[in-house]
Amino acid sequence: MKGAYLSCRGVSLQVGRHSILHHATLDLPLEGLTILRGHNGAGKTCFLRALMGLLPLRSGQLLINGRPPVKARQHCGYMPQKADDTAPMLPVISHVMACLKGTHWGIPLPNRTRQKAKALLEETGALSLAGKPLGVLSGGERQRVALAQTLANAPDLLILDEPFAALDPKSHEALLQLFARLHQRNGTNLLITAHGPLKTKNLPLPIREITLKEGTLHV
Amino acid sequence: MSEPGLFTFPFMQHAFLGCFLVSLLGGSLGWLMLLRRQAFAAHALPHIGFSGAAAAVWLHFPPLVGMVAASMAGGFFMGREQQGRGHPAQRDTMTGLILAASLGIGIWCLHEANEASSQTTTLLFGDVLGLDGPTLGLLAGLVAACLAGVALLWRPLLFISLCPSLAEAQGLSSTRLGQLFLLLAALAAAACAEIAGALLCFSLMIGPASAALKLELSPFRGIVCSVLGALLLSWGGLILSWYSNIPLPFWISLGGVGLYLLACALMKGKLPPSKIRKIHQN
Ligand SMILES: Nc1ncnc2c1ncn2[C@@H]1O[C@H](COP(=O)(O)OP(=O)(O)OP(=O)(O)O)[C@@H](O)[C@H]1O
Ligand SMILES: [Mg+2]
């Protein structure tokens, strides 16, 4: 998706008594990889949830490619900071299969869905985990499965909350390469949060850092 | 002269057919309910249905109609009050309160109906040997409607049960889906209660399903396994109760526990030795 962008029009976002954004008005291109920074509790997760339409705004308007979140989210893939652990006894592959066209009615064709799920797991380097129950995975393994789930419906915009949190240095590299591959092959753009430094120097995709601080987005 | 076989009696044929029908429902809906951690709801729904049946007895309706209506109303309100997955405690509170209130109403209805003894026993313990043709037809209709509903809801239901935060981010509502599902579960519970009785019908839903989940199977295989388990319990229970003269629900409920223990033993045998060593070391 070329020319992805995010517009905030007087956006105020508040959770409990905590003000996350205060009358923010800005236009932000999301081409390539956009890294959202900010200290613990700055409100990054809340901001991403608002982008997915999961958190109501106090005032103002938020638009992704000119559309409000509830319309735009069909083309977005969201990976929450804390992965779900509601059905730990089911195999990994079932968890990925459930995400493939999960909002449609009826029963899917099992074989086709399974093949697609396997391809997704292979993409994120988690194919060897397909038969394991989800509950036994390590933190980094779970993260890779979560990423496969997020990729399920070929989103144009990936919104990933701390995708590097549980990864070892080698997997860091691999994930950045995956981002570049997705961008080059499918034109996928990414908005992620991260704390540590990222080795993005030679990565063949545009990179931008933004910071959320004291209710303001610094571009 | 040799003793006639148990299949020669029409009431026994009806009983086997009825057991087949409710096993289809109990196995599949039970698996989904356990997956969604709604064992308490599975326990409560048939009891709520019991009160509806009691009211029907009083008002001279067929008990099954009252049972379906009451458990569906119960399922509807339980699902309504289920404020997402953030408050599981709240959900159980609502289920408990609805259960308590409906049992109270049920007792009052039975009191008013003034024919408590035999009818109550039938409602509580089921009457698998008393199934007549029309009841079987009604049961088959219920089963078909319920399974069609599950098939229709299958994808979103699985999505919201396995990956709630991803599903919500795609616009699915966990409250609304949970409510629809509980309506189906209520239908299933009413149908199962007709056979196994309100008191023990949830053992047909919970026993085989818990064993199937223990086996860590994929959803499709898990449900097939759970349905087969339910069939084994109900048919096996029928045969055993014929020869032992102990009521069917006894065999179903103990058999369910047996199935779960069997699944545990199977899973223990499945672990490779190296892994067991690792577990012991940790
Ligand atoms: N539902 C809620 N009710 C009240 N306060 C909340 C709620 N959700 C989040 N907060 C508060 O909002 C603030 C921002 O939380 P958020 O999770 O967005 O931070 P974050 O920037 O993602 O932090 P981290 O880097 O640790 O992930 C925190 O202080 C948190 O305690
Ligand atoms: Mg966060």
Number of helices of chain B: 12
Could you tell me which chain pair has the largest interface and how many residues each side has?
A-B, 35 and 32 residues
The residue ranges of chain B in which pLDDT falls below 50 over 5 or more consecutive positions are 276-282
The count of DSSP E runs of length 2 or more, i.e. the number of strands of chain B, is 0
Structural class of chain A: alpha/beta
CATH class of the domain at 9-201 in chain B: Mainly Alpha
Q: Order of strands in the sheet with the most strands of chain A?
A: 5-6-7-3-8-9
Summed up, the helix count of chain A is 6
Q: How much of the polypeptide of chain B forms β-strand, as a percent range?
A: under 5%
Largest sheet of chain B: none
- CATH-derived architecture of chain A: 3-Layer(aba) Sandwich
Shape estimate of chain B: globular
- CATH domain class name of chain A: Alpha Beta
| Multimerization status | heterodimer
Family (chain B): Belongs to the ABC-3 integral membrane protein family.
Pfam families (chain B): ABC-3
Transmembrane segments (chain B): 15-35, 47-73, 93-110, 131-154, 180-207, 219-242, 248-267
Keywords (chain B): Cell membrane, Ion transport, Membrane, Transmembrane, Transmembrane helix, Transport, Zinc, Zinc transport
What this model shows, in words?
The complex is a heterodimer of chains A (219) and B (282). With 219 residues, chain A is α/β, with parallel strands linked by helices. Chain A contains six helices and nine strands; from the N terminus they run E-E-E-H-E-H-E-H-H-H-E-H-E-E-E. Chain A has a single domain, classed as 3-Layer(aba) Sandwich (Rossmann fold). In chain A, helix 6 links the parallel strand 6 and strand 7. The model of chain A has no long low-confidence stretch (mean pLDDT 90). Chain B is 82% helix and 0% strand. In chain B, helix 1 crosses helix 9. Chain B starts with 9 loop residues before the first helix and ends with a helix. Chains A and B meet through helix 3 of A and helix 6, helix 7 and helix 10 of B. The structure holds adenosine-5'-triphosphate and magnesium ion. Magnesium ion binds next to helix 1 of chain A.
